[in-house]
Structure to design on (1071 residues):
């Protein structure tokens, strides 16, 4: 079987040739695709103004690259949507191995940017393994959960799944990339939640999470043990005490709030100064939402949020309509990843969440993040197409 | 691929072929997930609404405050014009080497290296450049810092040609204060400099921005609010790193300062300073130190200061550029003169206004008026016979032990008989403060109210003052537990004090300006049958707009009117006129060849004694003229006798004023 040809369920011994030709034209999810494309456009439009002075003499440096990433990502998404996701299930050990190896490779040979070693330099862009890891982990964990579907209520399953997520999470936190590590844990938790782990275990996990958070942020530094680097702790707690002093943590967030607030209802357009004059650092990557808010105001910010809302709605719908548990769990993982990143990133720019270095999916500039997100969307499209195909076979089309 | 078996976990049916409707447990959990997403979006929307719609206005202000920086644009400073409207102080454009802090290389070695390189080029130390930059940056952030003005063509060419070796260094045309006549009237005109932190707190400097050049002394200071104009504002957009970026923020144009027309007569001022120097040199040639001097020329009718000078002096142009510590110390007279171990006279001090001196015999007309009016003496009665007057164990003698015999008042003034006035002072002592009251009445021992930043009050000693300082001395000794505080020797007022005062010695302290005011009062009363007035000496005449349009005429009404007994006054004036015109008069030989009928001179020499120093030479005179009368006060510290040094200077001034041939005639009278 070549990867791109079959739309039939892999478990089916042989697809009826008569329906094969028809189901080949089964379309990808139009709403999801529209939302993704629209966000891509929003990203380019926002970056165009925010980055035009960042590289002297090259006003299109960032937009050109981001457009390339988006196009490559969309092509990959289309390709992946034609690929039966279910065939990934048996490859869980390979995928998990690739995840761990790529993260270790970054620690080994990666280059350092702003004090953290997160990426491997490739000829065209620097590859951030922890981003791709979000998709790899989703698939591997979904497969693991499906394998242990009968033993879901057991403590070992919960422990095993969480452990499988914590190992790469700890490695990426060591890079240090706290945001991605948190995404991994959230993905694992959501998979257990959707698969049907017992409430007792889930509650225990939340309790454990809170205790360890307290330990890492408060107790350990108090006795001189720094699990996180001091700057990470400061960033995590800075949103509790904002400041306009550039020397202080919390400055970035305060300037971001000023940027978004000054956008008012319809934005400042070309008069935007906070992001154009670089008062909000990283306004093209992690703080891109500040650029949206300042340039296009409440209207622009709301539009972007609505597009994310559409994406999450469609992801949840695909979760429900999936033809099998594996598909549902992959969809759950992708949903968790999107929701967590959107909420934490936007929350960070508007001062209600700590600064954790989580990119805004599709909007933030960065090849690894854009392509990873589009791969995840590709998986959703694949689940959608397979579900449609499976239902079409039974003559029941759920739209 | 292995088929997925129907599972038991979570009640999920894993069969792919017969997909059941969504199981209730999954439905619940997906619903929870969906609910979470909705809650999350709701929170974000409410927060966005709060930030952007409800608080938007406030954040717009914060964003604008972030990016815009106001830089003051210096307003052209008004000129100072002489009474004919010719500029005494103007502004000139020159090139300044400036540093734009934001364009400097990174802090640390590269920047220090640049400072050193630039310092070498400009002939200053790298550390000095750094200090200037730090100071400038603190005063006005984002504004270029001036390192050196008038750097010289060589340095400017190097900077222009090798711009890449001097990143952040620019040349800017700047307007600096120019004093075309150099040292002329330096203490009167004053100088300028960047406004100090202390001045910014004063109400007189309200609205002045940091870094603005304002008057620091003299007229530049006193009339600063007219001269300085209003700074404009250039608005600079800066990015987060503090680098200015191109922008279209509209600047506010500066408003030029007004010009100040002053009462100074340029010709008289120049001649006065020349004459003062000549007189001092003449005294030095005669073996006197003649360390410092001052002169004032006053219009007795209205108090207009026609000329005023002080020596040693300085060039205010120096202040247009940054001054070194040593240069400033020298101007303040804080450097030690070679070997003498005592401070050199301070060039910054205006001795005409701020010198505090005893006056010697120039005070005698005041004593005469006081004692005559109080009836202590009568003009015909002969007093002061013999070489000395003896009071208890002390003796009070004439200069050079001369004996003028018992003379009347007019003769006593003419020959400057000390014994006459010692006796008058002795007699007056029992009548109370008759001399002191006359001194105060005429304007001695009180501030004149001149339009300059500072002037002395002076002192006319009397009983109450002696008692006061004795009290202070006692309190001080008790407080500090020392044998003496040096305020007073603690003795009470004595008749000797009054006798010393009568001849302008003892504890009397006054300035040439106060004496000029006192003589003006006498002159006024003399010309008006006894009804005179104490003028308020002043320099300001009018405030003019930039195009010479009159904005305001400055008016300085007389301080008060006085009435003097006409008869007594005529006798006193006759005495000092004879002193300047009749054979035997103390300054008659100085005025030899002067047309006394055209311009009668009423002049009195003075020689003030200072313990351990050469005598101070004084000359006071009033020269009558129907249109342009003048009162002159001249003094030279350690210049010898009044007739010898000060009087000839006064004659040169008078010659200039009345357009007569100038002749330096040193008098021979050896009287105090």
């Amino acid at each position: 079987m070549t990867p791109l040809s079959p739309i039939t369920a892999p478990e089916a011994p042989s697809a009826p040739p008569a329906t094969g030709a028809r189901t080949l034209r089964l379309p990808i999810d139009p709403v999801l695709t529209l939302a993704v494309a629209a966000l891509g456009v929003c990203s380019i439009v926002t970056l165009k103004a925010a980055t035009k002075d960042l590289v002297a003499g090259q006003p299109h440096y960032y937009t050109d690259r981001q457009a390339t990433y988006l196009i490559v990502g969309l092509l990959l998404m289309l390709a992946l949507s034609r690929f039966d996701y279910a065939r990934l299930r048996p490859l869980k050990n390979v995928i998990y191995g690739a995840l761990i190896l790529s993260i270790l490779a970054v620690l080994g040979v990666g280059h350092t940017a702003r004090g953290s070693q997160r990426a491997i330099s490739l000829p065209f862009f620097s590859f951030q393994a922890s981003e791709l890891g979000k998709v790899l982990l989703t698939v591997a964990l979904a497969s693991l959960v499906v394998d242990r579907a009968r033993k879901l209520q057991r403590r070992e399953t919960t422990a095993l799944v969480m452990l499988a997520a914590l190992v790469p999470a700890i490695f990426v936190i060591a890079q240090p990339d706290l945001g991605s590590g948190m995404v991994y844990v959230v993905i694992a938790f959501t998979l257990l939640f959707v698969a049907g782990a017992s409430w007792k275990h889930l509650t225990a996990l939340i309790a454990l999470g809170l205790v360890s958070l307290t330990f890492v942020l408060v107790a350990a530094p108090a006795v001189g043990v720094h699990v996180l680097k001091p700057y990470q702790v400061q960033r995590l707690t800075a949103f509790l005490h904002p400041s306009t002093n550039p020397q202080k943590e919390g400055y970035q967030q305060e300037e971001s709030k000023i940027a978004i607030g000054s956008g008012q209802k319809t934005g400042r357009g070309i008069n935007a100064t906070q992001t154009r004059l670089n008062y909000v650092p990283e306004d093209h990557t992690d703080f891109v939402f500040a650029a949206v808010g300042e340039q296009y105001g409440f209207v622009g910010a709301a539009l972007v949020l609505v597009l994310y809302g559409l994406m999450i709605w469609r992801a949840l719908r695909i979760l429900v309509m999936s033809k099998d548990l594996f598909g549902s769990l992959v969809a759950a993982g992708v949903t968790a990843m999107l929701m967590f990143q959107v909420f934490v990133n936007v929350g960070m720019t508007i001062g209600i969440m700590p600064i954790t270095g989580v990119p805004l999916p599709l909007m933030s500039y960065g090849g690894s993040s854009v392509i990873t997100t589009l791969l995840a969307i590709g998986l959703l499209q694949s689940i959608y197409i397979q579900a449609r195909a499976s239902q079409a076979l039974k003559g029941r089309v759920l739209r | 691929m292995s088929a997925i078996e129907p599972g038991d976990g979570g009640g999920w049916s894993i069969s792919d072929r017969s997909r059941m409707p969504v199981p209730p447990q999954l439905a619940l959990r997906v619903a929870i997930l969906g609910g979470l997403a909705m809650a999350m979006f709701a929170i974000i929307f409410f927060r966005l609404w709060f930030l952007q719609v409800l608080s938007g206005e406030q954040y717009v202000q914060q964003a604008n405050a972030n990016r815009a920086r106001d830089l003051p644009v210096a307003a052209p400073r008004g000129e100072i014009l002489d009474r004919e409207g010719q500029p005494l102080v103007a502004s000139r454009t020159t090139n300044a080497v400036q540093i734009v802090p934001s364009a400097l290389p990174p802090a640390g070695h590269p920047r220090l290296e640049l400072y050193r390189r630039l310092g070498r080029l400009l002939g200053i130390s790298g550390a000095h450049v750094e200090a200037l930059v730090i100071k400038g940056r603190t005063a006005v952030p984002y504004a270029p810092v001036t390192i050196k003005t008038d750097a010289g063509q060589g340095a400017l060419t190097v900077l222009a040609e090798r711009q890449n070796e001097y990143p952040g260094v620019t040349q800017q045309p700047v307007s600096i204060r120019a004093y075309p006549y150099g040292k002329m009237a330096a203490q009167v005109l004053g100088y300028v400099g960047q406004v100090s932190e202390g001045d910014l707190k004063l109400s007189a400097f309200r609205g002045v921005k940091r870094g603005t050049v304002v008057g620091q002394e003299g007229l530049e200071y006193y009339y600063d609010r007219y001269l300085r104009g209003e700074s404009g504002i250039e608005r600079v957009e800066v990015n987060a790193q503090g680098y200015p970026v191109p922008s279209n923020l509209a600047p506010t144009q500066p408003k030029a300062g007004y010009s100040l027309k002053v009462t100074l007569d340029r010709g008289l001022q120049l001649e006065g300073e020349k004459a003062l120097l000549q007189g001092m040199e003449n005294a030095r040639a005669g073996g006197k130190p003649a360390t410092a001097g001052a002169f004032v020329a006053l219009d007795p009718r209205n108090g207009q200061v026609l000329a005023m000078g002080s020596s040693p002096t300085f060039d205010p142009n120096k202040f247009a550029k940054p001054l070194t510590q040593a240069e400033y110390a020298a101007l303040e007279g804080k450097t030690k003169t070679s070997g003498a171990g005592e401070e050199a006279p301070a060039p910054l001090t205006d001795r005409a206004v701020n010198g505090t001196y005893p006056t010697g015999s120039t005070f005698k007309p005041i004593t005469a008026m006081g004692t005559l009016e109080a009836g202590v003496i009568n003009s015909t009665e002969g007093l002061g016979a013999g070489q000395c007057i003896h009071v208890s164990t002390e003796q009070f003698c004439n200069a050079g032990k001369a004996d003028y015999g018992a003379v009347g008042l007019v003769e006593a003034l003419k020959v400057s008989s000390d014994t006459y006035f010692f006796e008058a002072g002795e007699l007056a002592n029992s009548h109370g403060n008759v001399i002191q009251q006359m001194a105060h009445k005429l304007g001695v021992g009180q501030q004149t109210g001149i339009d300059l930043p500072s002037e002395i009050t002076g002192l006319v000693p009397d009983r109450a003052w002696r008692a006061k300082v004795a009290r202070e001395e006692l309190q001080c000794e008790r407080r500090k537990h020392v044998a003496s505080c040096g305020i007073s020797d603690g003795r009470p007022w004595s008749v000797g004090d009054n006798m010393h005062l009568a001849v302008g010695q003892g504890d009397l302290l006054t300035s040439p300006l106060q004496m000029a005011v006192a003589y003006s009062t006498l002159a006024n009363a003399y010309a008006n049958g006894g009804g005179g007035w104490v003028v308020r000496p002043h320099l300001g005449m009018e405030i003019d707009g930039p195009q010479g349009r009159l904005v305001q005429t400055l008016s300085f009404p007389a301080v008060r009117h006085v009435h003097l007994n006409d008869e007594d006054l005529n006798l006193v004036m006759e005495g000092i006129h004879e002193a300047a015109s009749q054979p035997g008069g103390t300054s008659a030989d100085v005025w030899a060849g002067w047309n006394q009928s055209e311009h009668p001179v009423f002049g009195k020499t003075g020689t003030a004694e200072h313990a351990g120093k050469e005598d101070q030479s004084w000359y006071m005179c009033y020269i009558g003229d129907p249109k342009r009368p003048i009162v002159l006060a001249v003094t030279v510290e350690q210049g010898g006798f009044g007739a010898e040094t000060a009087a000839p200077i006064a004659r040169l001034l008078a010659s200039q004023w009345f357009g007569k041939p100038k002749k330096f005639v040193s008098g021979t009278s050896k009287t105090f």
